Amino acid sequence: MTIFTFALKRIFKDKTNLIFLTLFPVAAIFLPEPEYWPLLPYGYHYFGVLILFVGIRLTGLLVEDRQKGVVKRLAAAPVTHFQYLFQNLLAFSVIVIAQCIFMIAGGVIYDHELHEPLLLLILFIVFSFTAIALSLAWNSLYRNKETSFLVFMCVIIIMALLGGIMMPIEMLPDVLEQLAVIFPTYWLAEGMEWVVMGEDTADFLLINGVLLLYTLLFLIIGSIRRMG
Amino acid sequence: MRELYTMRFTALRLIRAWVVLLLLFVVPFVLVTLLSIIMGDAEEGGLLLRNEINVMMVLAFQLFGGSVAMNYIHQDFFTERRYRIQSLPMNTTLYGFTTMLIGTLYSIILGALLAGYTVLVWNVDWGNIAWSIFIIALMATLSSIVCLIFTFSVKKFNIAERLSEVYGVGAILIAGLIFPMPDHAVINWVNEYINPIMLAYEAIDAYRNANVGDAWMNAGLLGGLIVITFVIMLLLGRRRMP
């Protein structure tokens, strides 16, 4: 598990990563509760956006490796491409899971009305996996880490707006409302609504199932080996 | 005046930087379009929401316009390229100023284009468009100066970039554009006298409502911020610029 340990070390060495992983979630916990909409406290409602930013920052390591030729050198090392990818993704997953647990535990301790904290934790973790996979697929399209991050920032804004994070999905025109289902953020917003409303369990399973399907799809796209 | 001649090449560099165009023009263009479609003719307190949101959106992206000047000054004066720039037969300080000027002008042009788009296509009421562009120009200038202060005050450029994001996102957050801020005296004071996006919006809104005195007061506050930050930038720049 050398690559796994090394990935963790590299992530925590970067000060910006530390801010994204510690300071921002702490600030999010203390954000107030809204009057009408969104249904969850602001910090939790917008946590999905933070997860997407964390995802693109973490997977940025892989673009860096491609930029510096590490991936090429790996071909000569006694490590398979699968091991390299798996151990890196495992490190990213461990970090986002810890962040989600910290966020939910913080909310429970701070006495936020989270309705079903455990189910919300599951939803956030599943969405985190989708975010990592999406970022992996996104990064595989770029050779430059900075360009990839900046363009993805635009995509995050659009996804948050059209996916029902920035405003209720019902406010969108019919065409955009129907189009919204293609965004993972739509399923996150639906999941958060389910956690608050708590209706049919099958719906929650469907939401997580769709997010996991997205994860699988993006993982396949992002795993294609590119030497750069 | 070789320094002025370089402006042409700085402009050419900018035109080729598609990511900048994407961030400062395409994204707000898409957002303005989407928000205008979503808002339709919805009103709140007799005011068209479309007017308020579109003006805020165009102003919000001006907060990030300073990244152009910041990046170019960093590339030309704080990387290995500085030795090439220093060996040129021209005044490098003046060259720095022309780079900053072009970055600011670019941001103003993009802001003016967006404002024009909102007027022509979505019929957004900016009051007096020339006054609005003047306010956009003040915001773009302030943003460039603030971003250069960050560039000059920290050693690592990555940190300066993050600080510029904190400046932009922080101003938007404090203005209550993402979620309503608590009714706290300090936050209200910051929004009334310091937050550039609120000062710019109030200046445009006051002019729109024929309240010219208030409009000039808010523009004056923005101008005051520009003077103060410009002095700080000069002091820091003299110390750090090669």
Q: Over all CA atoms, what is the radius of gyration of chain B?
A: 19 Å
Based on secondary structure, the structural category of chain B is mainly alpha
Biggest β-sheet strands, sense, barrel of chain B: 2 strands, antiparallel
Question: Helix count of chain A, per DSSP?
Answer: 11
Overall helicity of chain B = over 70%
Subcellular location (chain A): Membrane
InterPro entries (chain A): ABC-2_transporter, ABC2_TM
Protein name (chain A): ABC-2 type transport system permease protein
Keywords (chain A): Membrane, Transmembrane, Transmembrane helix
Question: Could you characterize what this model shows?
Answer:
Chain B: It comes from Natribacillus halophilus. Chain B: Keywords: Membrane, Transmembrane, Transmembrane helix. Chain B: The chain crosses the membrane at residues 12-38, 53-73, 94-117, 129-154, 166-182, 215-236. Chain B: This is ABC-2 type transport system permease protein. The complex is a heterodimer of chains A (228) and B (242). Chain A has one domain (2-223). Helix content of chain A is 75%, strand content 0%. Chain A has 11 helices and no strands. Chain A is globular. Chain B has a two-stranded antiparallel sheet with strand order 1-2. The model of chain B has no long low-confidence stretch (mean pLDDT 92). Chain B has one domain (2-240). With 242 residues, chain B is mainly α. At the A-B interface, α2 and α8 of A face α2 and α8 of B.
Q: What is this entry, summarized?
A:
The complex is a heterodimer of chains A (228) and B (242). Chain A is mainly alpha-helical and 228 residues long. Helix content of chain A is 75%, strand content 0%.
